[in-house]
Structure formats: C-alpha cells, structure tokens
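INFO batch 0412 | record 1 of 1 | parsing
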Amino acid sequence: MIRSGNERTVLSVFGLFSIVAVLAVMFIRASDKPGQPEPASERSKYVVTSVAIPDVLDFAGENTPVENFDVRESLDRELLINTYWQSHTLLLIKRANRYFPVIEKILKENGVPEDFKYLSVAESDLMNLVSPAQAVGFWQFKKGTAGDMGLEVNSEIDERYHLEKSTKAACKFLKHSYELFGSWTMAAASYNMGRTGLNRQLGRQDENYYYDLLLNEETARYIYRILALKLIMENPKEYGFEYSKDELYPPIPTYKVTLDSPVEDFAEFAKRYSINYKVLKIFNPWLRDNKLTNTRGKTYYISIPKKGYRDFALDEGVALPGNESHE
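INFO prediction complete | emitting tokens
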C-alpha cells in the first residue's frame, strides 16, 4: 500500500516516540531489577546480637567468678552457641517440661542441688543416647560405673535407660564426689572427667578450685555449658525463645504393673494392656529384649500410660490383668 508524504512523516514521528517509550521502560526496569539490592534501611534484617551475661551467677549455690575475663569469655562462648542453635535449644526446653519434674523430685529426695538437672541436659540432651564411648542414658553411665552405682546391666535389662533409677545412681555418684572434693562444682567436673583424672590435675597444678584449673577441652567447657543452659532455660524469653505452654511436651501419667515372673513375649504382654510393643518400649526403654528370663523372680515395675494418653489406652472400668499398682 502506497502512503502519502504526510502519512509517512506522521508514522515516522510516531515510530520515534514509540522507540523512546520502549527505551524508557527498559531503563526503568533495569534500574529496578530483582537482583539489585535495596538500600539497607529498606530491607528487613536478621540481626545477630551479643547475649547478656549476668554480673552475679552461681552453680548449686557456689559463686561463679564472672568478673574474671577467662570465666566471662568461656561463659559467653557457651551462651552464644546455645542461644543461636535455636532449634536444638528449643527442643531441650520442650523436653524439660516432661522430664524435669521427675529429675527434680529425685534430686531433692537425695539431697543434691536442683541445678544438677542441667548436668543431665549437658550430658544427653534429655534423651537416651549412646555415646561413642558406650556411655548410656540420660546420665551417660558406662557399664562399669553403672554396676558400681547399683544399676542392673545385661542383655535383657539395662537400668541406665531407666530415668528414675539412673537419676538415683547419679545422685549417689555426685554425693560421693562432693564428699571427696568439698565442692558441687568440682563434683560436676568429676562427673565429666572422672575422679582419678581430676585428682591427678589437682596434684599437678596445686589447685582445688575449678575456675583456676587448666583442664582438657571438654571438661574446661563443661561447667560453662551447664551454666549457659541454666541461664537460657530459666529465662528463655530473655534469650529470644518464644513459645506457648501447649507447645511444650507434657508429662504423661502412667501406672505401674508389678512383674516378678518370666515374660516370653513383650509384644503379647503389651496387648494385655491395650498398647503395642512400641509404646511399651517408649515407657520402658530399660527393657532391652522382647522377653525376660527372670529365673530368680526379681520384682520389676513396668510403666503403662494411663487411659486417654494413647489412642489404644484402656477403657474405663476394665479390670487390669496381673498385679497392678497405680501412681
């Protein structure tokens, strides 16, 4: 189609304006492309801050000299690690709601300061762990020490996994250490490195005060980790941990079944109480096999969750088989 000169002029001018408009849009978009950072003041930032260290602090009623630079910096290290490893520390707080009431009661009954509940956190994260050195349970007993403390350990029964019995055994160890060293802080240190090793360092360094001793890396950090856990778990909101009460793991009421005879199959045994083998082992992790020989007729107490705390719990009014005692 042939156009007149005026038409061609108009089209040329329109085309020029179009090109200018396209270039302007491209410039604006280029200046605002996603990959280009916004000014810092306009961005939301994840802020990492230092953490507060109290001017006065104690472990089991014994003063921690936070005025000393080495003590303060060692504590700062553990506080920062446990504050900013948020997922891990939040899990500890949740578990503590279930297990601390049990541990606190036993510590009190045995005359051991309540702060030692944080030692169990430092040892095992409030889990029945097995360490590379084959230390087991909440209190991380090795087999030999467990036997010395009166715990039964064999292929069918391992009371290092029994929260109540292992806590009592830990109390026994700690009280003896306190008698030897005259300090709860030193008793805690001996729990980590052993009494013999700690005694060796006392003689070598001519010191008997934990905060003045040069110890191996693990024991040198041990008390500070316990103190950091104490500070955070006693004041979680001050260290940035926000949660509602119903998000904590609740204590689960149980009753005890007395057992003084052999059991051929714990899976079948569990079904008598309307639970399964998995649930039986959750509440009785110290049962290490699916059977119990028990040729001597020793008495054990099996924990069963009460009605309403598991989908297949017992119905109201159903007679329980065997000889049961309730708590």
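INFO post-check: The longest strand covers residues 254-259.
INFO record closed
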